[in-house]
Amino acid sequence: MGQLGMDLNRFILEEERRYSYATGSLSLALTAIESATKIIASHVRMAGLANILGKAGKVNVQGEEVQKLDEMSNNMMIRHLADSGQFYALASEELDDAIFPEKGRDGKYIIAFDPLDGSSNIDVNVNIGTIFSIHKKVSGTVEDFFQEGYKQVAAGYIVYGSSTMMVYSTGNGVNGFTLDPAVGLFLLSHPNMRLPERGKTYSINESNYPGWEDGLRRYIDSLKQKGYTARYIGSMVADVHRTLIKGGVFAYPADSKNKSGKLRLLYEASPMAFLIEHAGGKATTGKEDILKVKPESLHQRVPLFLGSSADIEDLMGCL
Ligand code: AHM
Ligand code: MG
Predict the structure, then answer these.
(1) How many whole angstroms from 236 Cα to the centroid of ligand 1?
(2) Could you tell me if the CB of 128 is within 6 A of ligand 1?
């Protein structure tokens, strides 16, 4: 365990072996996500080209219809997870309602995902990502999506950046794997990721400053006095990835127009909070721990502040 360069599939199997009661079902769900996202990564790389090739009648050189990247990513996640037979229900940012597998093909996991997060960055060749959250089936109804984040059995993201990385946790440390494009394998590159106790950056869409509450405005002003620097990509996966490695604060707060912020609890805030907390950081709505929020609907939004523990404590002192 923890061996640099280990292939993700072997890592997943070794983690599974630590639990005598494990059936292999979670491993199969994780490898389905891994294979879907390898294909998404390849399409993301080709995006500019696919659009050019697809212009004539929206058919590419292989004679296939060119799909929008977010639609393609959603279909790829559903197809690979359906083939794995490991889910009881799926929810996606791209779907109004949950979907259930055909009879006899249902598994024991409730999986929520954002197939391609940071969509405003797709057309400008800036990092985007996939986020996923996995809970166990409990009652066998759509209500199973409304479990608190601390009950997640696994969560993670894939960032399509200058390299493609998958970062995930089953509650036993947070590990990052980089895709080696030559062999098509995710290899352990960032074992046991931990946030520094305090960072030097803040990441927030500052154009919303006039609509923030006073305490938050005071807090961001104080960071400038302390010499913190601003870093904001506008792709949650990329902004959280940087925060996980370098520390500091990432936030999408409520403002006077958006009373619950922008980010969705089930497939954005909750899985990222799970990773951040398992890497020694903190994640809060400003009032309570994100992982303790009981969801009420599939696409519910929530204010989010996450990052280094000392930074989040300072922030809480101002709110
Ligand atoms: P999306 O799921 O439609 O892509 O929206 C979520 C994205 C996040 O990746 C990012 O943190 C946020 O929206 C950026 O919003 P804004 O442009 O308001 O700063
Ligand atoms: Mg999103």
Answers:
(1) 6
(2) no
Please tell me if the CB atom of residue 252 comes closer than 6 angstroms to any atom of ligand 1: yes
**SS3 sequence, the chain?**
CCCCCCEHHHHHHHHHHCCCCCCCHHHHHHHHHHHHHHHHHHHHHHHHHHHHHHCCCCECCCCCECCCHHHHHHHHHHHHHHHHCCEEEEEECCCCCCECCCCCCCCCEEEEEEEEECHHHHHHCCCEEEEEEEEECCCCCHHHHHCCHHHCCEEEEEEECCCEEEEEECCCCCEEEEEECCCCEEEEEECCCCCCCCCCEEECCHHHHHHCCHHHHHHHHHHHHCCCEECCCCCHHHHHHHHHHHCCEEEECCCCCCCCCCCEHHHHHHHHHHHHHHCCCEEECCCCEHHHCCCCCCCCECCEEEECHHHHHHHHHHC
CATH classification number, 8-190, choose in 3.40.50.300, 3.30.470.20, 3.100.10.20, 3.30.540.10: 3.30.540.10
- Is the C-beta atom of 70 inside 6 A of ligand 1? no
Q: Do domains 8-190 and 201-318 have the same CATH topology?
A: no
Range 201-318: architecture per CATH = 3-Layer(aba) Sandwich (3.40)
Distance of CA 20 from the midpoint of ligand 2 (Å) = 36
Question: Which atom of ligand 1 lies closest to the CA of 114?
Answer: 2
What is the per-residue pLDDT across 95-148, written as a single tens digit (0 to 9) for each? Answer: 999 999 888 888 999 999 999 999 788 878 899 999 999 999 999 888 999 999
Q: Where are the domains of the chain?
A: 8-190, 201-318
**Which protein residue's CA is at the shortest distance from atom 5 of ligand 1?**
118
| pLDDT tens per residue across span 231-289 | 999 999 999 999 999 999 999 999 999 999 999 999 999 999 999 999 999 999 999 99
